[in-house]
From TrEMBL:
InterPro entries: Homeodomain-like_sf, HTH-type_TetR-like_transc_reg, HTH_TetR, Tet_transcr_reg_TetR-rel_C_sf, TetR_SbtR-like_C. Residues 17-76 form the HTH tetR-type domain. This is TetR/AcrR family transcriptional regulator. Residues 39-58 bind DNA.
């Protein structure tokens, strides 16, 4: 229950929220390092939370992983909204979002290889995916209308682009973040529209959101 004066969660709820955030971050790290077969005991240990507390909140690994990917989508939506609200132009918002999204992943690596295709698309997941698509459509649409983003880049390119840019590299911490952002800047240069006297065509069609759904969700669900 929230504080009636500030609307903020009270002590017990704040502690539960902090524990949840630690669990989600630990799950990302452990799945990235050890794959889907990693024991949940390692996740609890790294989060500094007892197994009883973990199982009371997430009775199965699947439920924890679902929450992990929902949190990832919610974070991307929030970052897109922040970039659109705070940046002065369409290109600045687009680049800001990509930098924020990439920096937030830290050294845990991309999310899709960790859980992609293993979990069903629940109503909650589908609703989060719709919100993410709408936010990314706003970013890309604004950049297209301003003429600052190549026309053959779509909002559905963004999740897979982030997966590639966030690939695990054999360094950690600030150095890993610096290298990821270095390669992001190289990619951003290539996402500008080509000059009038140049013709560049990306090989193959862009992904669509249905294709991304197939990558994310368990078959036949």
């Amino acid at each position: 229950m929230g504080d009636t004066h500030t609307g903020k969660p009270r002590g017990r709820q704040r502690e539960a929220d902090r524990n949840d955030a630690r669990l989600i971050q630990a799950a990302r790290e452990v799945f990235a390092e050890r794959g889907w077969d990693a024991p949940v005991s390692e996740i609890a240990r790294r989060a500094g939370i007892g197994m009883g507390s973990l199982y009371r909140r997430y009775p199965s690994k699947e439920l924890l992983a679902q929450r992990m990917r929902l949190a990832g989508m919610e974070q991307l939506v929030a970052q897109a909204h922040t970039a659109l609200a705070e940046e002065p132009d369409a290109w600045a918002a687009f680049a800001r979002f990509l930098r924020d999204a990439l920096s937030a992943q830290g050294s845990s690596g991309p999310l899709l290889p960790q859980v992609g295709g293993r979990l069903p698309a629940t109503d909650e997941v589908l609703a989060a995916a719709d919100r993410l698509r709408a936010a990314l459509d706003d970013l890309v649409g604004g950049a297209h209308r301003a003429g600052v983003l190549r026309a053959d880049f779509t909002s559905a390119d963004i999740p897979l682009l982030l997966e590639h840019l966030a690939a695990r590299i054999p360094v950690t911490g600030e150095r890993a973040t610096a290298l990821h952002l270095r390669y992001l800047d190289l990619v951003l240069a290539g996402l500008r529209p080509p000059a009038a006297d140049q013709t560049t065509i990306l090989p193959g069609p862009a992904p669509d959101w249905a294709e991304l759904s197939e990558l994310w969700n368990a078959p036949g669900v």
